[in-house]
Amino acid sequence: MPEPRADTMTPQTGATLRDWAANGGALALRARIVLLTAEGRRDAEIARRLGVSRQTVGTWRHRWHSDGLAGLRQRPRTGRPVTVDEAEVVTRTLLAPGGSAASRAVAREPGLSHATVAAIRRRWNLTPDQPLVPRVPTRPPLPGTDVWVMGLYADADRAVLLVGQGRTPAAPRPLPR
Question: Cα angle vertex 80, ends 141, 145, to 5°?
Answer without folding.
Answer: 25
